[in-house]
Amino acid sequence: NTAQDTICFLRARAHCWLTFNLVSTRTPRSFTTKLFSSQSAPSLCWCTVWFLPGCRTLHLPFLNLARFLSAHFSRVPSSGWHDPLDAGSQQIGFLLGSCGVTVALTSDACHKGLPKSPTGEIPQFKGWPKLLWFVTESKHLSKPPRDWFPHIKDANNDTAYIEYKTCKDGSVLGVTVTRIALLTHCQALTQACGYTEAETIVNVLDFKKDVGLWHGILTSVMNMMHVISIPYSLMKVNPLSWIQKVCQYKAKVACVKSRDMHWALVAHRDQRDINLSSLRMLIVADGANPWSISSCDAFLNVFQSKGLRQEVICPCASSPEALTVAIRRPTDDSNQPPGRGVLSMHGLTYGVIRVDSEEKLSVLTVQDVGLVMPGAIMCSVKPDGIPQLCKTDEIGELCVCAIATGTSYYGLSGMTKNTFEVFPMTSSGGPITEYPFIRTGLLGFIGPGGLVFVIGKMDGLMVVSGRRHNADDIVATALAVEPMKFVYRGRIAVFSVSVLHDERIVIVAEQRPDSTEEDSFQWMSRVLQAIDSIHQVGVYCLALVPANTLPKTPLGGIHLSETKQLFLEGSLHPCNVLMCPHTCVTNLPKPRQKQPEIGPASVMVGNLVSGKRIAQASGRDLGQIEDNDQARKFLFLSEVLQWRAQTTPDHVLYTLLNCRGTIANSLTCVQLHKRAEKIAVMLMERGHLQDGDHVALVYPPGIDLIAAFYGCLYAGCVPITVRPPHPQNIATTLPTVKMIVEVSRSACLMTTQLICKLLRSREAAAAVDVRTWPPVLDTDDLPKKRPAQIYKPSNPETLAYLDFSVSTTGMLAGVKMSHAATSAFCRSIKLQCELYPSREVAICLDPYCGLGFVLWCLCSVYSGHQSILIPPSELETNPALWLLAVSQYKVRDTFCSYSVMELCTKGLGSQTESLKARGLDLSRVRTCVVVAEERPRIALTQSFSKLFKDLGLHPRAVSTSLGCRVNLAICLQGTSGPDPTTVYVDMRALRHDRVRLVERGSPHSLPLMESGKVSTERRVKHIFYGHFFLSCCLLEQ
Fold first, then answer.
1. Start and end of every AMP-dependent synthetase/ligase domain (predicted)?
2. Which listed site, 138, 454, 526, 724, has its alpha carbon 20 to 30 Å from 678?
3. What are phi and psi of 946, to 5 degrees?
4. Could you give phi then psi for residue 343, rounded to 5 degrees?
């Protein structure tokens, strides 16, 4: 109990104290204190003799743990650091220079890995001071004198070591720990954890800092414990190595992180004869993270049958400034459950504690991290402004008053005063005590019985629109959306950037190489939807980058500040990006009042004075176009179909192909008319529906969907096309179908007999209650009689159909389409693409929403051309189906999606010669239009054009369209239009809402391809709205 340095315990007696596994041989090597003392004496002697007073040392990564210890227990103030080649090393180098570091101690293996000049000298790293590199291996040291013995000093306020801390902005600070604080901290840990002599402890953590240093090095030396140290590199090879050592040595204590528990869960099936009954304490170093509770519960659930007890799991909370803040004590009472709290996420964003039910998704379940350390006092203060004490139902920053803490930020007196000299205030304005408190950087509260609960960190706090969100909570939500198939679990970064005077959330993750672009975008959409529903906050940007491209920390995690800097510089080079400014930028100024119309003279004068012009463009006016369109005299599509059934009854409108390329089904004008009549009779007699009732059409892509749509028009009902649930993934896809049916208020559901059985199956009943579905009508068995009369709307502005879809942000949106707008839209596409009855058009699109639905179901009836329908799902079996159909039917115009084009590019890249031998000829293709609601993917379209150029595809034939949810075809490449133009703009100017054209190959250039001409009867205006440019499109009839 005397105040002496920890080194005095080394020579107490010979005892097996340290065992560490060598990564190269995977064989353990053990040290007794006597052996360690003799082998470390040369290093201790060298440090003592040659280091001048005030000289400081730097510890680089030690592969040999014993060498690190011999350097750490010397009399010279020191600290452990990571490799100078890692991310963020410049900021660490700046701190080393500030601390006056002149000597670097390292091992022989690490020394060999450093870059060297031709003369063998290690160069000075960028931002680092000039260092004297010294290898602490015995072969490089001389034997000390026999009478030499290390000087043992009393524990005083001299600096024992400096531990570095990386701040939120990337800067690195050095926290000084005195000798008295070090010794007191070891004594407090011994009392709290009940350490005794000769106990065995397995340490998986980094032994150079934080919990790994405090438990695995310092406290274990004090208590003469046997330490089993497992390096991180071995854990990556064998995640079960720490459990194996616990069983082999019957260890009493283990120091791990939640990631080590997760890895063990994944790999435990390969290991037998596991017995964890010897453990009395499993210290979870990152137990303060809210998402660590899931790893603890899952680990206990699996290994409880292997002897693990619930009371053994002991999460703790720590910080570089306050060292160990709190730790759950081991107990022998198995009937006493750990402390837990189910808190409302919405309440936490406002800094208050609101208990909620565990069944909800928008809750945060937190576990206690035990009691305050012995000899310490804790309080909770408001994180902003004056350090005023929080009320019992408020979340605040935890502050500690104790001897066993850090004392200052080295060389930064101002920041030291704000962190290490805090005096909490009462509501009356007076301090609660005369002793200063230390900010821990942890957000939480003190619960019943003095249990400490941590809900986040100050460095991870993001204040968006006045509400607080924690980065760890956002990561946990993203991880809950099936991340293993698309991204790497531990490679997700969440941070905030300042946009328009407020913080915006950015998520960056590393995408798996085997994940396709379509799958990744679906995962990104689900993540945005989950964050919006659980946290009620929008995500500004979600970016996926290739694997192993984000800057790493020494132990393989993501370097957050470096990643944020790359994002701000535009140097992330993502492979998939989803920007959603409209969902999170909600502080835009209100729109101005509508001003009177401006005449041409005023516009000209205003442009001359301000040097600006109004960006606008207009398509052709339908009223000025002379054509012989007989369908124009009809106001409704149902009337057009009746007219075609009378004038051209045997004309084929639709041809459906199967995966073998043969005709699966076809429809003439009269066949479609008669089938629509039978469906109308079924709706009125069996469904008992009336005019204006909504009907959900749940069909696979095919002829049945088209007939059901016109049957609804004949009966006066409003159809809603819905994608059917996937038979292999009912649990995920069926709730979306149910949501669309409920939101659209459908009175009836029409589908095929096969899907009817699927909806009533056992798997479907587990996802959606069968009793909640509206009446389901099977259209495979239709009545034979005709309706008494076909419904004719009284007003062209009445509702024709509803267009429902899930947007890229995960939001469900439905657009109302009137009969007048539908007819005008079909006529606009007919004139733009020059469609007439003798034409054949190949369509490979999903027919459930947007332009894909209009081309699949509506345009052929209005224009009279034959549509060759190719379901995109058939391309998974036969990737060449679409192109073979285009060649076989000598199609001149075809429409597809980016997913279809990507599938053909990847699946047929090596088959062009065989396709050419089979007679595939694309020379007749005049327009190949990609239907999308996004910026053209130039790389994909160019790859597609180059790949199939040898098969006759002309590069100018490939073009794109541009649409949105409320205007499905703003721009569409016409048959007589010029070649699509590509321009290059400066990305730096785009960040300032400006357009500056540059040459191809210029630095910071971004290629943009033309999306076609503005469609007929459309006016597009580019309006400056606050800090954003909004493209507004008006469809006139």
1. 641-971
2. 724
3. -65, -35
4. -110, 145
pLDDT level of residue 44 (50, 70, 90 thresholds): very low
Helix (H, G, I), strand (E, B) or coil at 234: helix
Q: Which of the 8 DSSP states describes residue 368? A: B
Q: How confident is the model at residue 967 (pLDDT cuts 50, 70, 90)?
A: low
* Cβ 895 vs Cβ 842: under 8 Å: yes
Q: Cβ of 163: how many Cβ atoms within 10 Å? A: 20
632 - beta bridge partners?
A: none
Percent of the chain's residues with pLDDT above 90? 27
State pTM to two decimals: 0.57
Identify the band that residue 621 occupies on the pLDDT scale cut at 50, 70 and 90.
Answer: low
**Which two three-digit tokens encode residue 648?**
């051209």
DSSP three-state, residue 366: strand
Distance (Å, whole) CA 184 – CA 188: 6
Backbone angles phi, psi at 135, to 5 degrees: -95, 130
Closest CA to 164 of 101, 122, 231: 101
Cα 382 → chain centroid: 30
End-to-end CA distance of the chain: 92
Angle, helix 471-479 to helix 517-535, in steps of 10 degrees: 130
H helix runs in 538-662, sequence order: 560-569, 581-584, 600-610, 637-647
Number of H helices, E strands in the chain: 32, 47
CA–CA gap between residue 994 and residue 986 (Å, rounded): 9
Query: Residue 618 pLDDT > 60, yes or no?
Result: no
Q: Are 96 and 128 in contact (CB under 8 A)?
A: yes
Q: Alpha-carbon distance 300 to 309, whole Å?
A: 8
Which amino acid, 363? V
Beta carbons of 731 and 767 less than 8 angstroms apart: yes
> In whole angstroms, what is the distance from residue 1031 CA to residue 1024 CA?
9
Cα separation, 419 vs 173, whole angstroms? 12
The label of the residue with tokens 């009940």 reads 194
How does residue 38 score in pLDDT terms, banded at 50, 70 and 90?
Answer: low
